Amino acid sequence: MHRSGITLLLPLFASMLLASGCASTPIADAPGGARHREASEIAASMVGKPYRYGGNTPQGFDCSGLVYFSFKRAGMDVPRSTETQRGKSRKVSVSGLARGDLLFFNQEGKYSSHVGIYLGGKRFVHAPSSGKRVRVDSLTETYWQKHLLIRVASDGVTGQ
């Protein structure tokens, strides 16, 4: 009887272990990892889509909405607002940038008011402003060099 009781408990115990593994907190992709690269590719594929304040779909994006959409499509959670995205990131040097890292800029006298996604080769994709379209720009351009606030590894995102 004791042996049959153990035999009955083994499948129950195994299913509990499997279920607990499914419920564990997912591990975030490392900055520059495969899902960060995927997010940058998704964002780059949105080049030409219109800017729309508050937008986070291909019908129109604001800067943080493009980041939100791209990371979400890559299977990662990222905050919706520029300020919160910056708060969930950490500073890195320009030489330490990896594809998929977030770049924050001061614009129009506003601290950290703009965000883009680093593509590599000193290029980034972003939704610039009203009346414009998602585009790729270069960090070598004087305007962006002047307004670049911080470079951050986007490791504050989590996988789904």
Task: Tell me the β content.
Answer: 25-35%
Q: Per the principal axes of the C-alpha atoms, what is the gross shape?
A: globular
The helix count comes to: 5
Structural class: alpha+beta
Number of E-type strands: 10
Strand numbers in spatial order across the main sheet? 4-9-5-6-7-8
Instruction: Describe the main β-sheet briefly.
Output: 6 strands, antiparallel
Q: What are the segments in which pLDDT stays under 50 over at least 5 consecutive residues?
A: 3-28
Query: How far apart, in Å, are the first and last alpha carbons?
Result: 44 Å
Query: Can you write the helix and strand succession as a string?
Result: HHEEHEHEEEEEHEE
Compute the CA-based radius of gyration.
Answer: 20 Å
Question: Averaged pLDDT, please?
Answer: 79
Helix content: 25-40%
Describe the structure.
The protein is of the alpha+beta class and 160 residues long. It contains five helices and ten strands. Helices cover 34% and strands 26% of the residues. A hairpin with a 2-residue loop joins strand 6 (110-120) and strand 7 (123-126). Helix 2 (34-44) packs across helix 3. The radius of gyration is 20 Å and the shape is globular.
Main attributes?
160 residues; globular; 34% helix; two-stranded antiparallel ribbon; alpha+beta
Write the layout of secondary structure elements.
Blueprint: H1 2-22, H2 34-44, E1 56-57, E2 60-61, H3 63-73, E3 76-77, H4 82-87, E4 90-91, E5 102-107, E6 110-120, E7 123-126, E8 135-138, H5 142-147, E9 148-153, E10 158-159
Antiparallel strand pairs: 1-2, 3-10, 4-9, 5-6, 5-9, 6-7, 7-8
Helix pairs in contact: 2-3
